[in-house]
Amino acid sequence: MVCDLIKKKIAEYDAVQFAFIFGSYAINKQCEDSDLDVAIMLDKPLVDLEDYLKMKMELTELTKLEVDLVVLNDAAPLLKKEVFQTGIQIYAKSQTFVNEQRIKALFEYDDMEKYLEASHRALKEKYI
Question: Polymerase beta nucleotidyltransferase domain: which residues (predicted)?
Fold first, then answer.
């Protein structure tokens, strides 16, 4: 299975703290041309694009699928929320760390949502 292949490969990367599969493969809605969405959390923000591209290429070759590799460290709150709510966790060095990041992501999303609602109301008042 794809999850097992990805899990084994991800475990080889020391910097990866945890990984999820999300998107169409996570909800069993993939089709022939679907890519495989993989989200990873690194022990520090990504600074080396070459390492990222190497990992993406290795996962693509391993699975024979186009892999969309997302680094959660710098991802938008909405994307983090999607990963944690609909994704399938396939690897973790520490489940406690995953849980902490899940809670942090939900708080970030909640804060962003409040800001967007206030911004939407202000625009509505100004233009309607």
Answer: 6-95
At the second CATH level, the architecture of 1-127 is: 2-Layer Sandwich (3.30)
Mean pLDDT value across residues 63-89: 95
Instruction: With beta carbons less than 8 A apart as the criterion, state whether 38 and 2 touch.
Output: no
Cα dist. 50→22, 28, 46, 53, 57 in Å?
24, 31, 10, 5, 10
Position 116 scores a pLDDT of 73
Burial-class residue 93 by CB neighbours within 10 Å (0-12, 13-18, 19+). Answer: middle
SS3 content of the chain, % helix, strand, coil (to 5): 55, 20, 25
Where does the pLDDT of residue 77 fall: very low under 50, low under 70, confident under 90, or very high at 90 and above? very high
**Measuring CA to CA, which residue among 55, 63, 91 is closest to residue 2?**
63
Tens-digit pLDDT profile for residues 42-51: 998 777 889 8
Length of the chain: 128
Contacts of 6 (CB under 8 A, 6+ apart): 19, 21, 36, 38, 59, 62, 63, 90, 91
